[in-house]
Amino acid sequence: MNNSRPILVAFFLVVLVFVISCSKNTLTGKSQLSFIPEKDMQSMSYTQYKDFLKTHEVLSPQKDANAAMVQKVGARITKAIERYFKNTNNSGALTGYNWEYNLVNDKLVNAWCMPGGKIVVYTGILPITQNENALAIVLGHEVSHALLQHGNQRMSQSMIQQVGGVALSVALSTKPSETQDMFLRAYGVGSAVGFTLPFSRKHELEADQYGLIWTVMAGYDPTEALAFWDRMEKSSNGNTPPEFLSTHPSDVKRKEKIKSFLPEAMKYKGK
Ligand SMILES: [Zn+2]
Fold this sequence. Notes:
3-stranded mixed beta sheet, 5 strands, globular
């Protein structure tokens, strides 16, 4: 009897699962572990986003200057992204995107972007952004997490661990509240579900890198990122760390990395 056969079969099964679970990110061209189709994530996002806005006080851009600023910066970031994807013959990757930027009246220091370009900024982060330019840094960073499908990867990992590699629709029908909680944690809406899930250092740096490109293309100064992270770190001194820092951990090397990304980002000025 051939003893190596079961091992070979197991090996091929592992490879098969890996190939099925991996998809290529259209922005970076790198393989990533995500088995949930982006359109399924987007359809869940639209429901979750609507629910979130229904249960929070959304500030009107007609009545509130900060809400108007969020819309203005958001529109410029969106245009920059659409130009970048067009210039790289990758506009198809934005299919299903339906960009929306809202400011909610909530003292939490937070901001996030769900699949399909559904963004929320909390008023609590405005004392730290302090200006339109730093808001562009935050929005550029957040939309990058969605475009780079970091949330999809986090959701895929949680699903494998908690409900197995089933389809999103199956998870939603068999374990609706658990699936919804996994989704909210994967996108940094942590406080809504009790605990947060921090983005990895790799994901943070990737979101910084691309975020700076959109910031420059939108006509803002990318060096403001350094001042923004300084203010974010200071804001946690002696207090409970802000929600944003629990999902977007900062480390000592972050500013060095941001500095090293600046020359590349500056090449996109006027593009
Ligand atoms: Zn982040």
